[in-house]
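Aim 2 progress update. The chain analyzed this quarter is reproduced below.
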Amino acid sequence: MLFANTILRPPSNSEADSGGVSWNGATYQILGKTEMNETSIQSMKMPVQYLSCQESRLTYADGSSRTVYHSDWEVPFPEGLLIVSRTDLRGIITHANDAFIQISGYRKEELIGASHCVLRHPDMPKRVFGDLWQTISAGKKWQGYIKNLRKDGAHYWVFATVVPNIRAGTVVGYTSVRRQPAKAKLEAVIALYRHWIELEGETE
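Predicted structure tokens:
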């Protein structure tokens, strides 16, 4: 665990040149150790999700890879909202609605032009996205549960529906609509995904 038992926060202006830890495009200062507790965290107004972050290396279908940092902190799905995005044929984001921007933790200009893989969480099995791409590339609708990674390392669950955008008989991109997932089904989904990831590890 890279940041186990530590607390991170963005550096102040006076600390900006003093180094720190680079995390998801920002620099953070390591502040605390095991004696830090929830009360002291709250008194310093530090996000709890900055505790006990893990480092993972993700490799994508195109062979590219990146290092991500993630915590156990879950952000609830925004009540009554739908997350909507559109991508081109390669999965590059061309549209992001306000709910998407809000829950992802990214600015709109960071999302537009980025690959949807920026949301990929290490707890997601590769076979889920393999099935997604196989289905939508065939011009069909795909639905499933996805655990997304926020910019700050926290996560959120969604129930996603992805459909091809068809113009003059040709698929020109994809639209994804994410809804609040059914909590009653998440426990089984999490167990299944964990099993699939274990199987993927055995074959690597």
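Strands lie at 8-9, 21-23, 26-30, 54-59, 65-70, 83-87, 93-96, 142-149, 155-167, 170-179. The chain has two domains: 8-50, 74-203. These observations will guide the mutagenesis experiments scheduled for the next reporting period.
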